[in-house]
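Structure tokens please, single chain.
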Amino acid sequence: MTPSAERDNLARGMSAQASDGPSTRAILRIVGIVVVSVITLYLIYLLRRPITWIVIAAFIAVALSSPVALLERSTGRRGRAIALVYLGVILVPVLIGAILVPPLVKETNKLVDRIPSYANDVTTFVQKNRTLRKIERDYNVTGKLQQQAAKLPSKLGGAAGVLSNIGLAIVNSLFAGITILILSIFMIGSGGRWIDAAIRSRPPSHHAMLRRATSDISGAVAGYVAGAIGQALVAGVTSFIVLTILGVPYASALALIIALLDLVPLVGATLGALLVGIVTLFNHFPTDTIIWVVWSIVYQQIENTVIQPRIQARSVNVAPIVVLVAVLFGSTLFGILGALLAIPAAATIQITVREYAMYRKLVRMEAIEEGKEPPEPPPTILAPTPTPTPPPAAA
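Here you go.
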């Protein structure tokens, strides 16, 4: 082969390899997709707070859709039904505050007044114990404790800065809560029309299936809220009974705190039990505290493994193991908000997958009827293999 022919073959090979590689347009398309994805994720990060508010507002709107529909059938007017439901939503925190704030303020003032006497009791106890007396002589623990206890009432006035920060946080929380409620009112008022318009944009044969899916999702969210309230009610009632038997003051307020915190999955019940355990330290210590700790541990195990999975499985129609896994995953990824929304999200995914499978089956049936897709062949039935006849035995 001549040198010129070799050079031609080499050039043709290089051009073939270049044609086999990605084109400039494909590379630009990939780079554009990556850039757009990065910009989108960055915008989502910047807008994470309003996006979170919108998600919470949508959850509230879906959860309240059932009570609004019930009142709408009774009153005949949707606007009046929405106003009554949201009036109840607003009055609930007011009633809770009216129950909790007076005993909280009273007991806080009483605790501050009794701190010097508690310090004297500690001093007396130390003086009666030989080992503690030696520690007292070396470090003067009780003397420093009494000094700080005597200064505590005067230091309460210096807490204005802390209270101002708390007040600012409360104002921000109120602004967020009002914004979320307004968003949910708009969603529950006009969300139905948006859903109907989206359903009507699909072929008529899909309308019934899509309406069934949206109805099932709404029922799952409403069932989750009802189940969470039922679980919190069980925790509050049982705690009230135990606290009443122990003779702990303000048993109703403490039980209400436990019920409210029990609405938070995983950590809420533990936090409520810890707060009430601190209160029992000042009432027949250590008997009441030991009884309360033992009861709280037993009840939380029963609630986490029996009450919560069964209530949520019945109300949301999700398997108990899925409930537990969803709460664990949601709390790990998104904290308390993820734990609150994990179960309705799992129910929504389950309903979506089920309806999508039915949708694919419906589309295939329509394609078969229109002749665009051949029907599935019938299953092949294999003929049984004849059993060989054994040879006759030799005489």
